[in-house]
Amino acid sequence: QVQLVESGGGLVQPGGSLRLSCAASGTIFRIYTMGWYRQAPGKPRELVATITTGGSTNYVDSVKGRFTISRDNAKNTVDLQMNSLKPEDTAVYYCNADIQDSRSYSYLTYWGRGTQVTVSS
């Protein structure tokens, strides 16, 4: 009943920029914390950034100053602006959100299917 869909991934040169978007849809009562995770080949998934309903943010040290997470509560979307991209940023990026279902009132964590980001010359 609830779905997250990422978009905006692709191939970019080192030093370039990319903006990822994630839209939540379905039987949503309220969305709480939203975030972005990534998984590089041969490595475990790691948290990239999170943002609370009120707009408080947290970032993994490796992306501080380069990435910016934001959300639009009216549209149920969360974005990740990525600047000064490095080859080590290459990964599948996943959107996630803690959501309370409007029908069942269950509180669960949802995940998107991921979008590929490749940083290479």
Textual characterization of the structure:
This protein is mainly beta. Helix content is 0%, strand content 60%. The chain contains no helices and 11 strands. The strands form 2 sheets. Strands 2, 4, 5, 6, 9, 10 and 11 form a 7-stranded mixed sheet that branches. Strand 4 (28-39) and strand 5 (46-51) form a beta hairpin. The model has no long low-confidence stretch (mean pLDDT 97).
Largest sheet: 7 strands, mixed
Q: What's the Cα radius of gyration? A: 14 Å
- Please report the total strand number as a whole number: 11
Order of helices and strands: EEEEEEEEEEE
Strand content: over 45%
Please, what is the oligomeric state?
A: single chain
**How would the global form be characterised?**
elongated
Q: Helical residue percent?
A: under 10%
Structure classification: mainly beta
- Given as residue ranges, the uncertain stretches (5+ residues, pLDDT < 50) are none
Mean pLDDT: 97
Distance between the termini: 40 Å
Helical element count?
0
Strand and helix map with partners:
Layout: E1 2-7, E2 10-12, E3 18-26, E4 28-39, E5 46-51, E6 57-59, E7 67-72, E8 77-82, E9 91-101, E10 107-111, E11 115-119
Parallel strand pairs: 2-11
Antiparallel strand pairs: 1-3, 3-8, 4-5, 4-9, 5-6, 7-8, 9-10, 9-11
